[in-house]
Automatic annotation (TrEMBL), chain A:
Keywords: Thiamine pyrophosphate. SUPFAM superfamilies: Thiamin diphosphate-binding fold (THDP-binding), TK C-terminal domain-like. It holds the Pfam family Transketolase_C. This is Transketolase family protein. It comes from Holtiella tumoricola.
UniProtKB/TrEMBL annotation, chain B:
The lineage of its organism: Bacteria, Bacillati, Bacillota, Clostridia, Lachnospirales. The keyword Glycosyltransferase does not apply. This is Transketolase. Belongs to the transketolase family. SUPFAM superfamilies: Thiamin diphosphate-binding fold (THDP-binding).
Length: 310, 275
């Protein structure tokens, strides 16, 4: 069964709005895409549409947080970084303000709109901002839980969301533990670390590999920062090799974060899968994922290569 | 405003100018020009118009202030210290390592600084957020934002201006320190802004003009701005960059230049004259 991450996010905001009256939601004219409009319909008095003005949206959210609100700001992930970098750094991060930044349509998920609308740099940016917690959800259930966790955490949070419909991996009873990776599959030959939509692809690849007699440990790192160092090191010790898969440029995202952890504590061979420092193009989402090597078949291929050569 | 009060503020401004020159000469860094153009605006706000004290910072029922032109931090710090937000001794550590007084205002280190500023244009936008929040909470208080005129070349200023009008932020009072000079030259040379008054009016603001170095003129403008309903207001305060020091007045090189020993002596001699 599949569920759209953005729908889950919109509904979760709405549910939480009932519980927490301090929540206000801002959007920059894309509320029907980000699904923040679901909240806007339910709570028009706590919904602020600033028009096509991301910088002002984020700076206004800073002001709202100063007088006690918990603002959720919404736009496409790539515009959040591109247009919002200045207030995200100098107001939100520097001031350690209680603002939640929801980056919609991350990775290649706004597939047909092309390279300008694909967000393959957001994790690198938010990882480099002090005080930010960075979350990347793998399915609709996690999206819902992450919204709640973000709202309850005092301080700035980046929530990486997707436009895609993805298989439901979690059930409601699974807790969302901030800063803890989830082991979804146990195995001894290789650790596959993934985030976001790539988690389901990694699980798919793991099944194919199992049929080939290769067992893999599959981990979902939903909290990119602070990252679960202990689990990454423990898994590297168990399997001796690590493959990282993310819908992001291989520079600066989860792959880089995993390499940073392992090179300083327990170096093992690591292969980073993501877009190869290139601009992307328009097309069907699944077709794009295949083209840029982010499908199950590509993961299987890289896994086998990594095991054979190391 | 009473004559005694005006005289008191005049004396304070005079003293602040002396202290600023002494401080910036001593540390050989910091921005004198833009600090001297907004001296009257800051003292009038903190010592007459605004309800902000070290004691009511946790109280939601108070006014708010943002120094959007963050480089005027030295004059803000003199004002905050005088108001009792921190010990005046701290001023000597301005811009030095381990100091609570950063080169540009930092909300995390300096008591009384509510919004960190420095990158221009963001202060008015954050001010719109505070003003909107106060309205949503039904709190009848004002948000004062002090901007530079070079600063309004930033695009986000106009994004914020549109939103202030849309949300009818009549609790937002923007004061434009219009000294006509920015880092690289005069505003006319660097990026002419045309009819500033007409621009802000076109964006939905009530614009009130004032002499930014005349306490009475400024005071009347602020009082008028506070009474406006249904729309935000902007006080176009005509000022002089480097005001009070003849060789600094109207000169862009004094945006952020260290003060030499000879210049220091000349400046203090000018300021020896009693007001």
């Amino acid at each position: 069964m599949k569920q759209s991450i953005r729908d889950a996010y919109g509904n979760a905001l709405c549910e939480l709005g009932e519980e927490m009256k301090q929540i206000v939601v801002l959007d920059a004219d894309v509320s029907s895409s980000t699904k923040s409009g679901v909240f806007g319909k339910q709570y028009p008095e706590r919904f602020i549409n600033v028009g096509v003005a991301e910088n002002n949206m984020i700076s206004m959210a800073a002001g709202l947080s100063i007088v006690g609100y918990i603002p959720f700001v919404n736009t496409f992930a790539t515009f959040m970084v591109g247009r919002g970098a200045d207030p995200l750094k100098s107001l939100i991060a520097y001031g350690k303000l209680n603002v939640k930044v929801a980056g919609a349509y991350a990775g290649l998920s706004d597939s047909y709109d092309g390279a300008t609308h694909h967000a393959l740099e957001d994790l690198a940016f938010f990882r480099s901002l002090p005080n930010f917690t960075v979350i990347s959800v793998a399915d609709g259930v996690q999206a819902r839980k992450a919204v709640k966790v973000a709202a309850q955490l005092e301080g700035p949070v980046y929530l990486r969301l997707s436009r895609a419909e993805v298989p439901i991996l979690y059930d409601e009873s699974t807790p969302f533990e901030l800063g803890k990776g989830d082991v979804l599959e146990e195995g001894k030959d290789l650790t596959i670390i993934a985030t976001g939509v790539m988690v389901s692809k990694a699980l798919e690849a793991s099944q194919i590999l199992k049929n080939e007699g290769i067992t893999t440990k599959v981990i979902n790192i939903h909290t990119i920062k602070p990252i679960d160092q202990a689990l990454i090191v423990e898994s590297a010790k168990q399997t001796g090799r690590v493959l990282v898969v993310e819908e992001h440029n291989i520079n600066g995202g989860l792959g880089s974060a995993v390499c940073e952890v392992l090179s300083e504590t327990y170096p093992v061979p690591v292969k980073r899968m993501g877009t190869q420092d290139c601009f992307t193009e328009s097309g069907d989402y699944e077709a794009l994922l295949c083209k840029y090597g982010l499908d199950a078949t590509s993961i299987v291929h890289e896994a086998i290569t990594l095991i054979r050569t190391n | 405003m009473e004559v005694a009060k005006v005289d008191h503020l005049k004396q304070m401004n005079h003293r602040f100018r002396q202290e600023l020159i002494e401080l910036l000469h001593k540390i050989q860094t910091g921005h004198p020009g833009g600090s001297l153009s907004c001296t009257e605006i800051l003292t009038l706000l903190y010592f007459d118009k605004m309800d902000i004290t070290p004691l009511n910072l946790q109280n939601p029922e108070r006014d708010h202030f943002i120094l959007s032109k963050g480089h005027a931090a030295p004059m803000l710090y003199l004002t905050l210290a005088e108001k009792g937000f921190f010990d005046k001794e701290e001023l000597q550590n301005l811009r030095q390592i381990n100091s609570m007084l950063q080169g540009h205002p930092c909300s995390k280190t300096t008591p009384g600084v509510e919004v960190s500023t420095g990158p221009l244009g963001l202060g008015i936008s954050a001010g719109c957020g505070i003003a909107k929040g106060l309205k949503m909470q039904g709190i009848d208080r004002h948000v004062y934002v002090l901007m530079g005129d070079g600063e309004i070349q930033e695009g986000v200023v106009w994004e914020a201006a549109m939103s202030a009008a849309k949300f009818k932020l009549d609790n937002l009072v923007v004061i434009l320190d219009a000294n006509g000079v920015q880092l690289d030259g005069t505003t006319e040379e660097v990026m002419p802004m045309g009819d500033i008054k007409a621009k802000w009016e076109a964006f939905g603001f009530r614009v009130i003009e004032a002499n930014g170095h005349d306490i009475t003129s400024l005071s009347e403008a602020i009082d008028e701005a506070k009474e406006i309903e249904g729309k935000p207001s902007l006080i176009l305060a005509h000022t002089v960059k480097g005001k009070g020091i003849s060789f600094m007045e109207g000169k862009n090189i004094w945006h952020g230049k260290p003060i030499s020993d000879a210049e220091y002596v000349t400046a203090l001699k000018e300021l020896e004259v009693e007001v």
